[in-house]
Amino acid sequence: MGKEYSASPKLHQLESKRKRLTWILAVSGLCILSYLLGAWNAKTPTPSTQSEVYTRVGCKDEGSPSATSGGRGGDGSSVELPSSALDFESHHQLVVNSSEETQQFPPCDFAYSEYTPCQDPNRGRKFDRNMLKYRERHCPSKEELLRCLIPAPPNYKSPFKWPQSRDYAWYGNIPHKELSIEKAVQNWIQVEGDRFRFPGGGTMFPRGADAYINDIADLIPLTSGNIRTAIDTGCGVASWGAYLLKRDIIAMSFAPRDTHEAQVWFALERGVPAMIGIMASKRLPYPSRAFDMAHCSRCLIPWHQYGGMYLAEVDRVLRPGGYWILSGPPIRWKKYWRGWERTEEDLKQEQDAIEDVARRLCWKKLIEKGDLAIWQKPINHIECVQSQKTPNICKSDNADAAWYTNMENCITPLPEVGSSDEVAGGALEKWPDRAFAIPPRIKSGLMPGITVEKFREDNEMWKDRVTHYKRIISTLQQGRYRNVMDMNAYLGGFAAALLKYPVWVMNVVPASSDRNTLGIIYERGFIGTYQDWCEAFSTYPRTYDLIHAGGVFSLYQDRCDITYILLEMDRILRPEGTVIFRDVVEVLVKIKSITDGMKWKSQIMDHESGPFNPEKILLAVKSYWTGEAKQEQN
């Protein structure tokens, strides 16, 4: 039917669309109209809410939490889908760029249980080892894409709830003991029976991350609200980021997929923000002026090499007035040089080279005390330009471009200022006021079409949406979710509306989007990344509890096969995880026809404003199932 419709003349298409719209309005409105007429005749009061309308006339409110279970419920808190759904399938058939109409997707071979498509070690070995380019994103070709479901390990359990997950994870979920052996002295991770324990140790903080962060707080103001966003380069299991959270600082932690097996995976299993990533030849996938603080604790990044290009990249993503913290080689080399198995001369030269790069970036060294050294980026470039005869300012005019964009060995220009004490790009409010204050990028008019009024309207809209989500997802308020992703984040309104819940949100701005709004999201005190959803995300399997996909498939339906986007969502979603799709009915019907073959349970519901809104909601839950490891033959 869909193929016949797509091949019909344009006039027939318009007529079909008109009939479908008439059908939606008619079916959706009949229940309400029949009640109102009955209420008038019976002289009963008009209901005060849409829910009351549905309940009285027997038209089930799709927001009602009473329902059948949507999954096995590994922790006893599985998502429940409402018992009745809107049935649009027989009335809406539209050809969307996807594969076969109905296909049952088989499990992949268990060897793919830990598959990371764009950071596959086997594929990476084919690429240039210079500057570690082979560890960057190298995604599979169209012919290499998998049409199967990535299996969970046989003993997979729902992760511990936050905040317990900061300190514990199930061994069966990530069956890797390498770090507990390799980093045993450094206290990264310990195996205790059927679980891992994270003592909070690190290479440069043997007393634990908490004590280490307290040492930093003695040197810069960590608790004043001025520092909200941070980036941890070469993060290990992200204990630094984990212990910053109780100080209302959220860190984007990243590390490559390398010999330290699954370090980023452990971070995400703990409920701590993290991505697979590396300092190599491409810019980090974040906008300019994003982070209040950057950190490297023995991260092994050669800051002094390639003319200081990696420090120049830190400068690009660091906010004016932001801090760079370095511990480990070469800092305090006079004490540690023997243990580091390097010569004094070599370490001194490295530190001298780093100091020189920092001076060329116009950074000010604030302090070097104990194992820590801290620099600060200037709030503008007035003094920098005056003090250097020919400062190496980048010529490119798009500092926010960061999707497969080459790094540059130059100073990213800051917005113009009127005086030496003015913060380039605009000063930010302290946290938590920052979350709802007007972001400087909007206030200054740098984002065409996004006004202060639209920003406020967006916040109100998301407040209504999350209120509605609480009705249709009863577990939202129960700590069932921790790692949340917004696949099309726009202004970060979803993350802002979830602030009171024990979650963090990975705000994704599609790289193909007409408006690059990721800088606004960071100015609000949230974190996120760029991503092309025609490719896989830089994460391990089973790392997100809740995914929000608003308008994603309308955006991508003409760019790539949406089947593969859905298979990627299945890869990164945990068993019994939830997805909220928002789109027009035709697209949602197509999505549902695909996810029905992916062991998902789903149903289409009305928009929170009522049945007359053409946008609908598809609520989906991934079923619990596991793979079977192959038995070793004797």
What do these coordinates show?
- This protein starts with a helix and ends in a 12-residue tail after the last strand.
- It is built from 19 helices and 19 strands.
- Strand 6 (about 230-235), helix 7 (about 240-245) and strand 7 (about 250-255) form a beta-alpha-beta unit.
- Helix 2 packs across helix 3.
- It has helices at about 1-5, 10-40, 50-55, 120-125, 180, 210-215, 240-245, 265-270, 310-315, 335, 345-360, 380-385, 440-445, 450-470, 495, 520-525, 550-555, 560-570, 585-595, and strands at about 65-70, 80, 170, 190, 195, 230-235, 250-255, 275, 290-295, 320-325, 365-370, 370-375, 485, 505-510, 525-530, 545-550, 575-585, 600-605, 615-620.
- It is α/β, with parallel strands linked by helices.
Q: List low-confidence stretches.
A: 1-17, 22-74, 89-95
- Mean pLDDT across residues: 86
Give me the Rg, rounded: 26 Å
* Structure class: alpha/beta
- Quaternary assembly: single chain
Beta fraction = 15-25%
Q: What is the makeup of the main sheet?
A: 7 strands, mixed
Which key phrases capture this entry?
7-stranded mixed beta sheet; 634 residues; single chain; globular; 19 strands; 17% strand; alpha/beta; disordered N terminus
Short description:
The chain is of the alpha/beta class and 634 residues long. The chain is built from 19 helices and 19 strands.
Strands, helices and their partners?
Layout: H1 2-6, H2 10-42, H3 50-57, E1 67-69, E2 80-82, H4 121-124, E3 168-170, H5 178-182, E4 190-192, E5 195-197, H6 209-217, E6 229-233, H7 239-244, E7 250-255, H8 263-269, E8 274-276, E9 291-297, H9 309-317, E10 318-327, H10 333-336, H11 344-360, E11 364-369, E12 372-376, H12 382-387, H13 440-443, H14 452-472, E13 483-486, H15 493-497, E14 504-510, H16 518-523, E15 527-531, E16 544-550, H17 552-556, H18 562-572, E17 573-584, H19 585-595, E18 600-605, E19 615-622
